[in-house]
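#lab-general

N.A. 3:47 PM
ok so I finally got the sequence cleaned up, no stray characters, all 156 residues accounted for. can someone with queue access submit it? mine expired

B.Y. 3:52 PM
send it over

N.A. 3:53 PM
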Amino acid sequence: MIFLEIIKVKKNKKLYLDLLLLADEQENMIDKYLEAGEMFVLNDNGIKAECVVLKISAEDYELKNIAVDPAFHRQGYGKKLMDFVCDFYKDKNLYVGTGDSKITIPFYEKCGFTKSHIIKNFFVDNYSHPIFEDDTQMIDMIYLKKCSNACNGINE
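B.Y. 4:20 PM
back already:
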């Protein structure tokens, strides 16, 4: 019997591509960060969730992808993985970019992230096809930030 564990994946990251494609549906976009990023998988009698975090600078990291197997949505796996990542990078500033989603943004805000900045037309300019979530086309990339402990709770 396997108990819930979060594992850092160091090689053969493409083995987890199917799940990553749920959160970033264009493989060439994933290829831009997969090998350079740190990958974590949540295993609970099988892989339930995974994420990739990319170092941007000495103090800043970006959560590039987090995905939960659809069969296990709303069972707390995404939150458990997010809590782990936030603790793992607690001394760093952690960013996450997403579309203007009524589902995703509230999830990140519940995890302690606040809106940081917007990249206009990101999804239109960088994807070969329109990206939709809940019948809404994603246009702009909305960035959220969670400050490190060094910020003393003050978000920029």
